[in-house]
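Board work, copied verbatim: GDSL esterase/lipase
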Amino acid sequence: MGFWRSVVATWFLLVVLWLLSSVVVADPLPPCEFPAIYNFGDSNSDTGGISAAFVPISAPYGEAFFHKPAGRDSDGRLIIDFIAERFKLPYLSAYLNSIGTNYRHGANFATGGSTIRRQNETIFEYGISPFALDMQIVQFDQFKARTTDLYNQVKSTPDAEKLPRVEEFSKALYTFDIGQNDLSVGFRKMSSDQLRAAVPDIVNQLASAVQVSGAAAYATMISVYQHHLYEQGGRAFWIHNTGPIGCLPVNLFYVSNPAPGYLDEHGCVKAQNEMAIEFNSKLKERIVRLKAELPEAAITYVDVYSAKYGLISNAKNLGFADPLKVCCGYHVNFDHIWCGNKGKVNDSVVYGASCKDPSVFISWDGVHYSQAANQWVADHTQNGSLTDPPIPVTQACRRM
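↓ predict structure ↓
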């Protein structure tokens, strides 16, 4: 017994020492103090841009948290909202939302349907936003110039409290979540080989948003030199890769009796996920080069794909419903009434209502994630376990 007591005591001591060392080593530096966040992206991080520019998002969107539509394609908060909460900052106001907007702690240039590369189609055809990434960066340039000028005019008045400080642009966190729509357009318009060949250019244009403000063709067209975000002082960049697009329920709405190998073991469209993985691989390679090109930048690659696919593939054990089931909308056989809309099914008017408990669903409306899923993904990416370098978002100002 003495021998085993000694073994147990030694083991216990080692565990305690390991835990203590983990506590000391895990977060040796104080958290970064970001005074503002500037976000660029699509509907995964749009907090009201597309609603301000076009038709506002209607109920039951926003019901779980805001208790009314809040410009978000979800029942509640998005990942970008949880990032803001992590820094105790207000939720980001959309740049395009001109009414009663406070930009003191950042702005959101994302719009639903945005792409990295410009698309030659209107939003009324396939829902693609006219505000591609290059336009979002141009909007940021204008935002910075105009708010700086305005602040200098009103800095001694209460109006200044709604404006950013020029010296804080270099201290802000710049976040990106875009690329999913480029793939969806590619699936619609290109062959697999054509899309695969286009991926490096798509990725390069995303990287240029960090380096260069606006695409070269646009800058040439308007004969204006666009400054780099980096040259303007931006130093901390938090870049999401794209999620498992093949797991979005919408991709199965009109599929019956799929051929063997079309779906993976979790019911996701295999070829689409493989393309997303290819995109992410090229993105990660480009970010490695970008770090060398921008010696003072702290750039974090965030593996949202692994978090989302991990959630989807283990949904039942995590307390979620079937990940391919949709909470909001009417989707029975091949009859589809989108969330918040009305339509006819067998001569009866049907409303695309919300489910009773959105908190157990991963998919909110077939395309976008529920608040519960967004929170799970945020919790599993913002802690640094799925980032390169492996740092939490609270340390995203550190160059590793």
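Strands lie at 37-41, 106-108, 173-177, 236-240, 298-302, 329-332, 335-338, 342-345, 348-351, 387-388.
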